[in-house]
Design brief:
Strand content: 5-15%
Order of helices and strands: EHEHEHEHEHEHHHEHH
Number of domains: 1
CATH architecture: 3-Layer(aba) Sandwich
Largest sheet: 7 strands, parallel
Amino acid sequence: MTTSTKPLAVVTGASSGIGLELAKQFALHDYDLVVAAEDAGIGSVKDTLRALGAHVDSVQVDLSTYNGVQEFIERIAGMARPVSAAALNAGVGVGGAFVGETDLEDHLQVVDLNVRSVVHLAYRLLPEMVQRGEGRLLLTSSVTATSPGPFTSVYNASKAFVQSFSQALRDELKDSGVTVTALMPGPTDTGFFDRADMQDTKLAAGPKDDPETVAREGFEALMKGKDHVVAGSAKNTVQAAAGNVLPDPVVAAQHRRVSEPGTADR
């Protein structure tokens, strides 16, 4: 427990990439932090964030499991401090054909981490915010939320869920003092494509946004109470807009050209 008077923020998937940069944004703007990730790298993140002036509690936990989420919630509760903001960013992807190239367990992990854990964490964190009449929730969606995703079928569907969920919650809570913001990045220079086994795709081989830029734009949108932000390069805005107006078969065909294995050199 700490006697700090700074507001407290929660960030998941904070060991690297967008999650780490989001945690840095909170630390730079005078928040203390509770951060989580599955890998051991979350331990060293504590020192990085403390150097920015934040009090930090780091938790290595598997948020794709029910018990993992409960353990994380208990650690947050152990701070005995209200959560002023939360960035639910942890996510994973799987690349390859749904039939014949990928494992069921990998797809189910995408659902469990990208969808189930977001619902579980939001359900645990929001009531106290609503009771206080203030709070901010950031959900990391993606520009792929607007597009059916051949060869990333479950991942794209998971982000479409997060996008819809965030906007529904935002409307439900519009008179509560609590805001919900969806962060919609495009391809970003993180370890995502390696972990998703997508190295041999045009998406992985193409230009990527800086995670610091994405996180900064997401943080700014959260602080302004915006409903969503398409972060990164202008092409992400174009992609999101196209996904919202073009027929799904057209958008799916466009996605296939960059997500199909073997397209990296085409």
